[in-house]
Amino acid sequence: MKRGLILILISLLSCQSNDNMTIIGSWQLNGSRYGTGAEIISHEIDSEIVIKFEKNGNYREYTNGKQISDRYFINNKDFLVLLNSKTKDSIFYSYQIKGNKLILDEVDKNGSFMCDEGCSSFYKRLEE
């Protein structure tokens, strides 16, 4: 009986941690970091920018009451790719999920950082 309870607890905890490691959900911009060549500058941001990633491959970005909706995917180089159907452009990001934090660094399609010194945007996961 004890063994069964332990297995159930382990499976529940592992499911919960997997949910925290997925990009699916809503994320609010709350910080940025960039380099100037001489120093790294970090800013906390009180922002209304929210990105919501859905299981079906759609994303929505909300900025100051305006909404952008389109498609996203994770490519074979493990980059997050946001599509813009109107312009036929794509934006590539290297991404990391650390707990309830999503870190995005814009890269080109080969993975080189778009900022010489690196620049990151930090998002916090919102409760749904």
Topology of helices and strands:
Elements (H helix, E strand, L loop, with lengths): L1 H19 L4 E11 L4 E5 L5 E4 L4 E6 L2 E9 L4 E6 L4 E10 L2 E7 L11 E7 L3
Antiparallel strand pairs: 1-2, 1-3, 1-9, 3-4, 4-5, 5-6, 6-7, 7-8, 8-9
Question: What does the model show?
Answer:
This is Lipocalin-like domain-containing protein. The protein is 15% helix and 51% strand. The N terminus is likely disordered. β4 and β5 form a beta hairpin. It is globular. The protein has one domain: Uncharacterised protein PF14869 family, DUF4488 (Lipocalin, Beta Barrel), CATH 2.40.128.490. The chain has 128 residues and is mainly β.
Which keywords apply here?
disordered N terminus; 15% helix; 128 residues; Lipocalin; eight-stranded antiparallel β-barrel; Lipocalin-like domain-containing protein; 9 strands; 1 helix
Summarize this structure briefly.
This protein has one domain (23-125): Uncharacterised protein PF14869 family, DUF4488 (Lipocalin, Beta Barrel), CATH 2.40.128. By secondary structure, it is mainly beta. The model is unreliable at 1-17 (pLDDT under 50).
Q: What's the count of strands? A: 9
Count of helix runs: 1
- Global geometry: globular
The Cα radius of gyration reads 17 Å
Structural class determined from secondary elements: mainly beta
Q: Could you give the order of the helices and strands? A: HEEEEEEEEE
Mean pLDDT, to the nearest integer, reads 83
Which spans have pLDDT < 50 for at least 5 consecutive residues? 1-17
CATH class categorisation: Mainly Beta
According to CATH, the fold-level topology is Lipocalin
Describe the biggest sheet? 8 strands, antiparallel, barrel
Share of helix among residues? 10-25%
Strand content: over 45%
Corresponding CATH superfamily: Uncharacterised protein PF14869 family, DUF4488
Organism: Chryseobacterium caseinilyticum
Protein name: Lipocalin-like domain-containing protein
